[in-house]
Specification:
The protein has 11 helices and 13 strands. The chain has about 350 residues and is of the alpha/beta class. A 7-stranded parallel sheet has the order 3-2-1-4-5-6-11, sandwiched between helices. Strands 7-10 form a two-stranded parallel ribbon. A two-stranded parallel ribbon has the order 8-13. Strand 1, helix 1 and strand 2 form a beta-alpha-beta unit. Helix 1 crosses helix 7 and helix 8 crosses helix 11. The chain is globular, with a radius of gyration of 19 Å.
């Protein structure tokens, strides 16, 4: 896709995917499509599996012009077996990420984040048990932090159905390692932003909502006092983490993936206003009851384990990431349209 080079960083990673066959589930979505672009750039053969579930952010335009094979199917569809046969690396990024949607329709969330994943793992076990599997989970599995920053030893106590389903999904991947010797790893991602993220939904996290509002010159509304803190990850840093997680040292492990620097929501919003030149400004508003009940407060990731084990740490500052993101979207205005 034109414009991809505007934000790529030539950061060396300790993995070599050239000449490998890679499967990316959820590959038409935000993180998955960015991963596909990088895999192709490095010389991998890429097969994408994506159900294009309405509202989840998948779009064929995310891979426009890229030489990949795309299978439109849920990951538990029997036809997926052909896609995973012979694959060297499987990046399992499929799933639903909306916290509020998971509370409105918990069965759908459990289906997309848990049930289909155990079916997928069963398929891999029978069709290609030697494949290397990297799965994406979320920092939401921890729930409301008892201490900051949050490391992997922190108790898991999800505050919503999405966190429960994601936790179950990652635990299934670990069970299939210990019980069936599949080479699995799960990454607990913090808030991710950057090119190819769906901007037209209000339910895929606060970062795309803030970005859309800023790009359109509209007011950014923050629930509460704006003091809640988050560490935010630029998507190319996440892609690097996915690649290094294919290393043998990561097998059978769960890793936090976050940024060493955190910011308040008010600081993040003001930074977006500044980088876009928006005249909409920022306003603090009271919490809607349904959102406040599942809010986790401030969160800051402790990424020491992945840094010490795999040598990965986030390399992109918030200012640089936001500037690259704005440049991308101004060159690809269709992301601001609902069609």
């Amino acid at each position: 896709m034109a414009g991809a080079a505007t934000y790529h960083r030539d950061v060396p990673v300790t993995s070599d995917v050239s000449s490998t066959v890679c499967v990316v589930t959820g590959g038409l979505g935000f993180i998955g499509s960015n991963l596909c672009h990088e895999l192709v750039r490095q010389g991998a053969t890429v097969r994408v599996v994506d159900a294009l579930v309405d509202g989840l952010g998948g779009d064929r335009r995310n891979l426009a012009g890229l030489d990949v094979d795309v299978l439109e199917a849920e990951i538990d569809d029997p036809g997926v077996a052909d896609a995973i046969a012979g694959a060297d690396l499987i990046f399992n990024l499929a799933g639903q990420v909306s916290h509020t949607a998971s509370m409105r329709d918990p069965l759908r969330d459990l289906h997309l984040n848990t049930i289909t994943h155990v079916s997928f793992l069963e398929m891999v076990r029978h069709v290609n048990p030697g494949a290397r599997i990297v799965h994406t989970s979320t920092r939401q599995v921890y729930g409301r932090p008892l201490r900051l920053p949050v490391d992997e030893l922190h108790p898991t106590h999800p505050m919503d159905v999405n966190g429960v389903a994601k936790l179950a999904g990652e635990q299934l991947h670990l069970v299939y390692h210990t019980a069936h010797d599949l080479a699995t790893t799960s990454l607990r991602l913090t808030n991710v932003y950057g090119p190819r993220q769906r901007l037209t939904s209000d339910e895929l996290g606060f970062l795309p909502v803030f970005m859309r509002k800023a790009l359109l010159g509209e007011q950014i509304r923050i629930f509460g006092d704006g003091g809640q803190r988050r560490d935010c990850l630029f998507v190319s840093d996440v892609v690097d983490a996915l690649l290094v997680a294919t290393a043998p040292e990561a097998v059978g492990r769960v890793f936090n993936v976050g940024h060493v620097i955190d910011h308040s929501l008010a600081e993040i919003a003001e930074a977006m206003v500044e980088v876009t030149g928006s005249t909409g400004g920022v306003q603090l508003v009271p919490w809607p009851n349904e959102d406040q009940r599942i809010d986790i407060g401030s969160f800051h990731t402790d990424g020491t384990t992945i840094a010490e084990t795999l040598g990965w740490k986030a390399a992109t500052t918030l200012d640089d990431g936001l500037q690259a993101t704005v440049t991308f979207y101004r060159g690809h205005p269709w992301y601001l349209s609902s069609t």
